[in-house]
UniProtKB/TrEMBL annotation:
Residues 123-251 form the BioF2-like acetyltransferase domain. Pfam families: Acetyltransf_6. Keywords: Acyltransferase, Cell shape, Cell wall biogenesis/degradation, Peptidoglycan synthesis, Transferase. This is BioF2-like acetyltransferase domain-containing protein. The keyword tRNA processing does not apply.
Length: 300
């Protein structure tokens, strides 16, 4: 099980970033560099590039100097050789922009094999939701009105858990750029009332869980378990091989992943492979920013 490329390195993601105020550049090997313009110095994030090498770093640094960037922050992919950063002025930073850990679900396996990996409580909850008549639907390239209903649920859930939720406009932008590879998966009760929803984006052989939310009723009736199972089966049928559940609690980052234990426990009931990304690396091109970071012991 290996994803061919993280979605944050895709053309669609680059266009999405441009639409919300970022500038993007690409290296000769196609590594996406996201640059945030600022009057106090441009900032750079490079998220999960595939196995960058020393010549890639040299090209990245040259581009960032041309763009007058204050610093370069690279969030390496999970299998990156970190020795390439040695002797080049990079240091770890405990301020990730991406989730530092996640779970990959292997969709290549048979449905029976996936089901066998679920916890007893997950299987029981799925069967209960089926008996009680909950139904799951999946919509490609969801229309604005339908997406808005789920977004309202996302927003309520995020507010309760003190998570950041991007504005609705950003969801519409992503649907626009990813088209039929944007998916809205919903579970409703017998009366058609929305219980839980997931928004996902596909790229190459992977699909990313972007946002989700559940009502208080769904937390009691366990219909969210049925939604996860039916979503996995649907995405498998679409030909995807890796389902990135986007985030789990990480003891290396207790502040950034606070309040994540609940949904991490939910995700872990479906098995999968825990993925731990390396600590992000930062290099200051601005001496002022480098000095401030060192004196104040601040991460960017």
């Amino acid at each position: 099980m290996e994803r061919q490329q993280d979605i944050r390195q895709s053309e669609g993601w680059g266009k999405y970033l441009q639409s919300i105020g970022w500038k993007t550049r690409k290296t000769s090997k196609g590594i996406l560099i996201a640059i945030r313009p600022s009057f106090i110095g441009n900032f750079v994030k490079i998220q999960h590039p595939r196995k960058i090498e020393k010549e890639d770093l040299e090209e990245i640094e040259n581009i960032c100097r041309d763009e007058k960037c204050a610093y370069i922050k690279i969030e390496p992919d999970f299998d990156q050789d970190l020795s390439i950063f040695e002797g080049r002025g990079y240091r770890p930073t405990h301020s990730p922009n991406c989730v530092p850990s996640t779970i990959f679900m292997d969709l290549i396996r048979t449905e029976d094999d996936m089901w066998a990996e679920f916890s007893h409580s997950a299987r029981y909850s799925i069967n209960r939701a089926i008996r009680e008549g909950y139904k799951v639907t999946t919509t490609k390239n969801p229309p604005e009105e339908r997406l808005k209903e789920s977004y309202n649920l996302f927003h309520i859930t995020a507010t309760k858990k003190n998570f950041y939720m991007p504005p609705f406009r950003e969801f519409l932008i992503r649907v626009d750029y990813f088209g039929d590879k944007s998916y809205l998966c919903e579970v409703r009760n017998k009366d058609g009332v929305l219980q839980s929803s997931k928004f996902c984006l596909g790229h190459k052989n992977m699909v990313l869980f972007v946002s989700g939310g559940s009502t208080e009723a769904a937390r009691k009736n366990k219909s969210g378990y049925l939604l996860m199972w039916e979503t996995m089966k649907f995405l498998k049928g679409e030909g995807y091989e890796v389902f990135d559940l986007e985030g789990k609690y990480d003891e290396r980052f207790p502040f950034q992943t606070r309040n994540w234990e609940g949904f991490s426990h939910f995700k872990e009931k479906f098995g999968g492979t825990p993925i731990e990304f390396p600590i992000p690396m930062i290099k200051f091109l601005s001496k002022i920013y480098g000095t401030v970071s060192k004196l104040m012991k601040a991460d960017f």
